[in-house]
Design brief:
OB fold (Dihydrolipoamide Acetyltransferase, E2P)
């Protein structure tokens, strides 16, 4: 049901005040446009899968994972709640290419949007093998594969 400021049949998707520019149409408040944008984004882009490079990866004291996903032209902020972040089979780090699945949400206070990540996986076999090799090299540098450290099986 369209409200006084929307027209769901409008080419703009119902996000503009009715009427032509310069007429006496009532302006939208910032809160009203933010609420309309929130409803539109969350209804029309419920669940998405995004491929991008992780940047700004930060694990908060709460256990939540905050990051950005980016490609060569754009960036989107992301959050993964502690429950899902604890179950990741790899450690997210800057520069890692991933596929993130989740829901787009908006935050009216900053007029921004983000993805609430429900699942994250490494994008492509090459990236997975590179991560495995990096982990192997780190463990080898710590001497964990040295012959003198090996113990006989019981």
């Amino acid at each position: 049901m369209p409200g006084p400021f929307t027209d769901d049949n409008d080419a703009a998707g119902g996000l503009v005040a009715k009427g032509a520019p310069g007429d006496n149409a009532a302006p939208l408040s910032i809160s009203e446009i933010s609420a309309l944008l929130k409803r539109t984004v969350e209804d029309r882009f419920g669940f998405v899968r995004l491929r991008g490079e992780l940047s700004g990866v930060k694990r908060a004291a709460s256990g939540h994972l905050y990051c950005s996903l980016k490609d060569d032209k754009a960036r989107i902020d992301g959050v993964m709640w502690r429950g899902q972040a604890d179950r990741l089979p790899f450690a997210p780090e800057d520069g890692l290419e991933v596929i993130a699945s989740g829901k787009l949400t908006t935050y009216a206070g900053r007029s921004s949007y983000q993805i609430v990540i429900e699942r994250m996986e490494i994008a492509g076999e090459g990236a997975l093998l590179a991560l495995l090799e990096k982990t192997r090299a780190r463990l080898a540098a710590e001497g964990l594969f040295a012959e003198e450290r090996k113990r006989p099986l019981p």
